[in-house]
Specification:
The complex is a heterodimer of chains A (about 100) and B (about 350).
Chain A: H1 4-13, E1 41-45, H2 51-66, E2 71-75, H3 85-94, E3 97-101
Parallel strand pairs in A: 1-2, 1-3
Chain B: H1 7-19, H2 33-43, E1 50-54, E2 59-62, H3 63-73, H4 80-90, H5 97-102, E3 108-114, H6 117-121, H7 135-152, E4 173-175, H8 186-189, E5 198-204, E6 208-211, H9 218-229, H10 236-239, E7 243-247, H11 249-257, H12 262-272, E8 274-276, H13 277-283, E9 308-310, E10 318-322, E11 329-333, E12 341-344
Parallel strand pairs in B: 3-4, 7-10
Antiparallel strand pairs in B: 1-2, 3-5, 5-12, 6-11, 7-11, 8-9
Helix pairs in contact in B: 2-3, 3-7, 4-7, 9-12
Classes of the chains: A alpha/beta (about 100), B alpha+beta (about 350).
Chain lengths: ~100, ~350
Amino acid sequence: MTTITQAQERASSLGLIDPFGAMKAEASGAPRLDTFAGKRIGLLDNRKGNADHLLQALASRLQTQYGAAEIILRQKATYSRQAQPEILEQLARDADFVIAAIGD
Amino acid sequence: MTNELSSQALRELFEVPFAAGWTDGLPVIPPTRDLVDEFVAASGRAADELIAEIPPLYGAATIEKIAVNAVMAGCLPEYMPVIVTALRLVMQDTFSVGGMQCSTHMSTPLVIVHGPIRNELGINSGANVFGQGNRANATIGRAVHLALVNIGGSFPGEADKSTLGHPGKYTYCIGENEEDSPFTPLHVDRGLTAETSAVTVYGCEGPHNINHQASRDPFAFLTCMADVMANLGSNHIYIQGESFVVLGPEHANDLADCGWKKPDIQQYLFEHARRPLRDVKRGGIYGPETERYNFFPRWIDQSDDDAMVPVARRASDITIIVSGGSGKHSAYLPGWGTRSVTGAIL
């Protein structure tokens, strides 16, 4: 069976132009932490129901069981809009890792 | 380009885009270099001009990549300015296309075309306007949706979490019927001249029919319309926002014959498309889980179960257009809750 990649290569060899857009930045995961101990926890609450409870429960567990450090909690104005740039900048600057919730 | 294509070679040209993950499930016109170049030329812009970085993956919607999707959709080259305008407009912050592309909700952008370009390109504004049969409507709408998915990366089951979707995600494009309307068209309401060709984009569900044949009395018709609008299942009863009323020309003219104008219609619907809070508590999105995002207007007394919850914060958020052909039908288009955007075709 032809894989998607093989088909895309075949399309290119047939002279067809792909319909995708160049990505602004490589979509790759952040480098994995070696430990949670001493790491600052960023929490991004999108204001959907129970997102706050879920995030707090996760953060508490990470602190008590894994020695994570302080929490930086930020909340979006509403779930259907992007987080304000200032929120994302603060989390990127002041947290070592970020958990976002909740996707329905 | 070869003059002789074997049956097998021809078939492969149509099968490979399916296998490569380029299509919406329907066959596409193979996007060859010469076709793409022809569409770029028809846009009047440079191939590498960046129109938008489309979320969720912020892919670069250059004129060239938009042209690829327009070729695939089956467009004619002269449709490019409409497609480019629609993709530019959905990027306005108040439209929130990124959220819409990923939401569990079925809403998706509807493209509405205004002004002389409808006649120049043969865009249908009349009978069966939401349906099939017209190349311009079918392929312009399709090009916009292919571009949003292919360039933006909102593939179903991946970043696009839509529970149900709806057929408008294949194609969703209509013309506003200015010729049979007694009212000013939307682009004029929004400050453009009648002679300016323009596009409105509005993120919404499929059309919900208003079948009203019994009476030409405005109050009878608008009672019917208000009833459909104030349903517990669409977003507006709990987050308000903007929604669209599409009047069929016969209904529009019945209202105008009785002296009604758009602001009168909007005011009536704003006042009457409401549900008592008791109903919303019983069957709408309301309760402990929604307290964190309850955005009811502050003038709704939430301690009063008889308080009438509106589907809009203000009458002007009920946007009215006229479209379609003969017959006693109109439609309501519930949205996602974000704002439509109107802009001139540049």
